[in-house]
Amino acid sequence: RPVAKKNDPELVKQLDKRFPALFDLLKQYRDGDTFVSYDTVEEADRKKLSDAVNALAEPLSQLAAAVAPKA
Amino acid sequence: MADDAPQQESETEAGTGTRTAPGGPSRRRLIGWGGAGLALGAAAAGGTAAAVQAGEKPSGDPGAAVPFHGAHQAGIATAVQDRMHFAAFDVTTDDRQALVDVLKEWTRAAEHMTAGRPVGDGAVGGPLAAPPDDTGEALGLKPSHLTLTFGVGPSLFDDRFGLKDRRPEALIELPAFPGDQLEEDRSHGDLCVQACADDPQVAVHAIRNLARIGMGTVAMRWSQLGFGKTASTTPKAQTPRNLMGFKDGTFNISGDDEQALSEHVWVGRKDGAGWMSGGSYLVARRIRMHIETWDRSSLREQQQVFGRTKGEGAPLGKDQERDPIDLKALPPTSHAFLAHPKNNHGARILRRGYSFTDGTDKLGRLEAGLFFLAYQRDIRHGFLPLQQSLSRHDALNEYIEHVSSAVFAIPPGVRDGHDWWGRGLFEGGEA
User: Fold this and answer.
1) How far away is chain B from the Cα of A40, in angstroms, using its nearest Cα?
2) Three-class SS of residue B80?
3) pLDDT digits (tens, 9 = 90+) for B160-201
4) Do A64 and B129 touch (CB under 8 A)?
5) Is B62 left (phi over 0), alpha (psi -120 to 50) or beta?
6) How many CB pairs under 8 A join A and B?
7) B35 pLDDT band (50/70/90 cuts)?
């Protein structure tokens, strides 16, 4: 994380927003120690989860390059 | 170190208000990367070929680029391209600045793609450790007359972005029409992008890359692929046929007809919302055709339904396709009769739809039809009265079904590299 922060602080800011956003969304589906079964999740909610995963996955895919040693 | 030099440039160039991302490579600095992108693009994609003026017939060069900047967005009066990929998006954040940032990035990406250049660092020019900025399937492909046309839906004008009082009066929600079987998931949308190109791969590449750039701020709501233009904006060219076998769009507004365009298509200065001046309104409806039933009907019946002959496309009672229609010779329930401007207080729309065949349904029937696109200066004097009449009386209704519907306000053109899609709407100015 420190390396990423130095190389691409914008990226880190974005990840700092989108990780918690996804986890907050997931909280709604918690059932004790685990989660509710996926087949109880409605279509519209499935899309919200999918969108949140996409939102995180995109900047996350940039992370490797942000911490890679420069050529 | 080859990477450092371009980064220096972009530090200064990127001070125009987009997000700067000092340090590692990032799609966010498209403006700064324009120079590098051009070099890569020129090598890979044949560069910026001779531009075709919007509205002209396609030039001798089949792969040419259509200019992105202009008073009006391209893709409306532009000669109709062979393929389409249309996408509707929903904004998934309440963060207005994030949305504005995406619109700016989208505009810069659109400038690149319509010129045949890849987005950002390109498809292969960036560091190996990073996913490429551009997805790559358009590498080596010509611009193919790609146009990208952007619009905003009525739902964008809710409480989220402070746009409530900037909603144009003309941006109405369509009422329910008799016979509608609209699927919610395939209808509406906060934003839309219409990508048209002669090469389907170029159109798909554009939507795909815009969707990717927008992830986290906007999400794809639905999209539609179209092959086969129906309706053309170039009357001298052969009129294309729709999937019912009939020439479609004979009497359409031509891309050259400046007078008709300003009367019926472009929003005027005094029409209401100032930020829409030079824009237009789009109605997009997915119309399913009951192909198997249609194919069993007699030729006579088919011609009576449309009000034109099938082969030549002549209005019934006439010989040639472009002979003026004699309304008295047409059955009063025929499509051509009911859609005629004389029967609709002079209403005219610019049609720019595409045929679709999305495989087959569960019963093995072709999922075929027309993705109907109509541009007009005011829906209340364009599509609305037309559809009110057609939905009630058109003999064609027996063979079709409207299964999705969406309306969008299409802003005026992006003027230059500092302008961006929706700037007039978001930056205040003329309300």
Assistant:
1) 20
2) coil
3) 999 999 999 999 999 999 999 999 999 999 999 999 999 999
4) yes
5) alpha
6) 61
7) very low
Over range A10-30, report the average pLDDT.
Answer: 89
Flag whether pLDDT at B6 surpasses 70: no
| Span B239-280, pLDDT tens digits | 999 999 999 988 899 999 999 999 999 999 999 889 999 999
DSSP codes, B385-418: HHHHHHHHH-GGGGGEEEEEEEEEEE-----STT
Q: What SS3 state is found at A56? A: helix
- Given a contact cutoff of 8 angstroms between Cβ atoms, the answer to whether A52 and A25 are in contact is yes
Tell me the one-letter amino acid at B293.
Answer: T
Identity of the amino acid at B301:
E
Distance of alpha carbon B239 from alpha carbon B297, whole angstroms: 23
Q: Write down the pLDDT at residue B62.
A: 76
Number of C-beta neighbours around residue B148 at 10 A: 27
- CB distance A10–B126 less than 8 Å? no
Among B23, B126, B130, beta carbon nearest to A9: B23
Residue B75 and residue B211 in contact, taking contact as beta carbons nearer than 8 Å: no
B327: left (phi over 0), alpha (psi -120 to 50) or beta: alpha
Contacts of B23 in chain A (CB under 8 A): 6-10, 66
Lowest mean pLDDT among B47-51, B206-210, B394-398, B418-422: B47-51
The Cα-based distances of B351 to B66, B76, B153, B252, B284 in angstroms read 19, 9, 19, 7, 10
Residue B407's beta-bridge partner residues? Answer: B283
Are B92 and A47 inside 8 Å of each other by CB?
A: no
Describe the crossing of helices A43-60 and A9-27 by its angle, rounded to 10 degrees: 160
Backbone phi and psi for residue B317, each to the nearest 5 degrees, phi listed first: 95, -5
Range with the lowest mean pLDDT among B42-46, B218-222, B245-249?
A: B42-46
> What are the CB-based long-range contacts (under 8 Å, 24+) for A40-48?
A47/B219
Residues of B in contact with A59 (CB under 8 A): 216
Please answer yes or no on whether A18 and B216 come within 8 Å at the CB atom: yes
Judge: B127–A71 Cβ closer than 8 Å, yes or no.
yes
Q: Provide ipTM, 2 decimals.
A: 0.79
At residue B187, the pLDDT reads: 97
- Short-list B153, B73, B174, B154, CA closest to B114: B73
CB contact under 8 A, B215 and A61: no
Placement of tokens 């560069």 in the chain: B47
pLDDT at residue B5 in the model: 38
